[in-house]
Amino acid sequence: MVGVKLWIAHPCSAPELDPIVQRAAELKAVIYQHTWFKVGGNDPGESTPHDLAQLAARHPDVPLICGHTGGDWERGLRAIRHLKNVYSDLAGSDPVAGYTEMAVRELGAMRILYGSDVGGRSFASQLAKVHGAHIPESARNLILGGNLKRLLLPILKAKGMKV
Question: 0.85 exceeded by the pTM?
Answer without folding.
Answer: yes
